[in-house]
Design goal:
Length: 262
């Protein structure tokens, strides 16, 4: 699978997950990129494109056809990302939430000036590592039901709201909090045995309707480069607790910055 070096953090990338771990996450199709496809995407993405060959129309068309084939399996749409991370750092990524319905939209997501895509394709190329694109079944995840969990030595040392800057009134309910803790504890008992690493930061989505269940969204390096949400790498305050944003702390009054009606 790997030709030369193993790029830093590659153990957390989806293409390297063991099958049992994949079964905890969303169905998807992985596409291993050919070298010429890496060049085509990186060149079209723009950032740092001088380090890549120019984008060849025929390579892009062939890739679009591959993405079309994969995405047909997901008629409700698919979440698009590299094995390493998603292109959510572009305006287009934010607006679409990285959701695509065909190959053309998939390519657009991966080539809209994403610094993440540029960095990760460059790092892969330097290591002679073939990067992957994943077309993942779209899931309607409620933002208040996504959590970032911190595992050290296969022990859960903290859980935080993923969208840590927003307080969700539903999370004030002690019953809901208890349900979240119970469902997550059950999931962790399984996850902690299957994780390829002893130390990892993993994100989960909870679905508490009819049949409550948890889906693994992804795993990230246990490293300060991974956002600590309501914890802090600096203060190393992982105390095993669940942290929810305080409803007293008012969300940023962002409209103040855009006085549209003046
Ligand atoms: N299959 C999916 N369907 C719908 N939304 C998804 C799906 N997978 C992920 N998301 C949403 O997109 C966000 C980013 O996805 P993901 O964690 O896979 O990528 P990432 O770029 O590594 O993120 P991060 O910066 O949090 O590490 C998730 O937190 C989740 O809200
Ligand atoms: Mg990530």
């Amino acid at each position: 699978m790997l030709n030369k070096a193993w790029p830093q953090f590659a153990e957390t990338w989806i293409e390297n997950w063991p099958d049992e771990l994949l079964s905890l996450s969303f169905p998807h199709i992985g596409i291993r990129l050919e070298e010429r496809e890496v060049h085509a995407l990186a060149a079209l993405n723009g950032i740092g494109c001088h380090r890549f060959d120019r984008c060849r129309e025929e390579d892009l068309c062939a890739l679009e056809a591959k993405f079309d084939g994969a995405i047909r399996r997901f008629p409700q749409g698919a979440f698009i990302r590299l094995g390493s991370r998603s292109p959510k750092d572009t305006v287009h990524g934010v607006i679409t939430r990285c959701k695509a319905f065909d190959g053309r939209q998939t390519i657009r997501l991966l080539t809209s000036g994403s610094e993440r895509v540029a960095y990760d394709l460059r790092a892969a190329r330097k290591a002679n590592y073939p990067p992957w694109v994943f077309v993942r079944q779209w899931a309607d995840i409620s933002p208040e039901m996504e959590f970032r969990c911190f595992m050290k030595n296969r022990r859960l040392i903290g859980v935080s709201q993923y969208f840590y800057q927003t307080s969700f009134p539903v999370l004030d309910s002690p019953e809901i909090r208890n349900t979240i803790k119970t469902v997550l504890a059950e999931f962790f008992a399984v996850f902690s045995k299957l994780s390829p690493l002893d130390n990892v930061v993993f994100d989960v989505a909870l679905f508490l309707d009819k049949a409550p269940h948890v889906k693994l969204v992804e795993i990230n390096p246990f490293h300060p480069l991974t956002q600590a949400c309501l914890f802090s790498w600096h203060a190393s305050d992982f105390d095993g607790g669940f942290r929810f944003a305080q409803s007293e702390s008012k969300p940023e009054p962002f409209m103040d910055f855009f006085p549209l009606c003046e």
